[in-house]
Design a protein that fits this description.
The protein is mostly helical. The protein is built from 12 helices and no strands.
Length: 271
Amino acid sequence: MGLTGMQVVLITLLAYVYNLDRYSTQIAGKVTILWGALTGFVLGDFKQGLEIGATLQLMSLGVSNLGGASMPDYGVAAIISTAIASTTGKGMAAGLAIGIPVGMLVMNLDVVVKIFNSYIARRAQTYADRKEFGKMRKIIPVATVIYPLEAALPVFLAVVFGKPVVEAVLNFMPKWFTVGLNVAGGMLPAVGFAMLLLYMPLSKYGYWLIVGFVLTAFLKVPIMGIALLGVAAAVRQYKALTEKNNSIDNSKNSSLEPNASGLTKEDMEDE
């Protein structure tokens, strides 16, 4: 299935809005599953877009570009993977085989764009020092316009010119390689979870992992049911901690209140 001109425009615009939100409003920039689902909706295959976005969302758990560091662009990978999977008809493995490398490429483009935007920031600072505020206000939005192009440009090139090349590469791939991609796609979410668990207080609340595993693997409780149990447990834990803190505060206040003789408990202990 080929892409119509309108679909190409919409997917490219989707990539532009994704990166614009990622570096400005930050409403859904890290929600990879959303961008995969929206791409699937544009292509008429919402379910596959949702599955690919969810898979890449799991891969990205525990990964963050702190400070000025760069990371693979999983949002772009979700958009391109969904587009490739839908246009070639060869499923998620084929889409991920192309989408993830392009996400790595965008990581390199991110470095280039940050270098260019550093130049814009220096120029804006120079104009501010010279009190040329009009020029400063004009040059600052240039960075905002350029940043989304790091995602929109690779996506446009991939969906417009990449299909014949992609099909040739996929046809060249042996079956054992595509099977290996499916296996790796199943392992990477587990790696993402493991990285996420490194930042969680497992020594204190690790038993909840066992509870969740038993509910899922043995009792077959739906994910919504497990989520509601998690909310109930969190509310109970919050109330217990609140009551504990209140009792500590009350005991401190009572120790500072004077008795009939005008002495506090701390004064009596000192005497």
